[in-house]
Structure formats: C-alpha cells, structure tokens
Amino acid sequence: MNNAIKIGLGFVAATWLSAAPAHADVFDMCPDGQEGVVGGHTTCGFAENVRSAFYASGGLHNFVAFSPVTGERYEMDCESGYSAHFSNGALVNSTRCYAGDNAEVVVW
Length: 108
Description:
Elements: H1 3-18, E1 26-29, E2 35-37, H2 44-56, E3 62-66, E4 73-86, E5 91-98, E6 104-107
Parallel strand pairs: 1-4
Antiparallel strand pairs: 1-2, 2-6, 3-4, 4-5, 5-6
C-alpha cells in the first residue's frame, strides 16, 4: 500500500472516530411544544428536564439532566444550530442534546 492510501485511510478512521453519534431524522414534538424526542429512546418528561437544565446552565453544551423514569442523572452533550424535523411536519432551529444511552432531545 502506498503512503497516499495509508494517509487517506488514517484520515477516514480519524474522522469516523471523532464524529458525533448518529441521530434520527424525525423527532416527535412534546405536548408543551418546547422540546422534541426520538421515539423509544427517551420521554417527554426527560426532555422537559433537559430543556430546564440547558437553560439553567446558561446554555452550556455539557450539563447533567435528571430522568423521572429511571431516577438517574445523565450527562448531556449538545450542539446548537440544529434543524430539527418533526413528525407533524414542523422544522425548528434548535439545540440537539444527546447522552451515551441513546437519549436524544432537541430544545428551543
């Protein structure tokens, strides 16, 4: 294998390892209309707590949120400027937050 191919493969591996977790394309909007969830991975109760913790942190992109279902606290990582597509057809500029247990929430 020549050096150009080795460097190219190293770049692909480094890019793949540093990429953010995969996420769903369509969210379900929670009843209060201020956050959304990916079906089956989390609940609107948790999403509401994520939203509250996000704004209480001053909009930090790393904070802890409490799940009313599991009774556990989860470290959330977030990215702003995310265009969230919803099952009701809405498109919302939001902040996408995720945790290592496949929890994925968008808030705005």
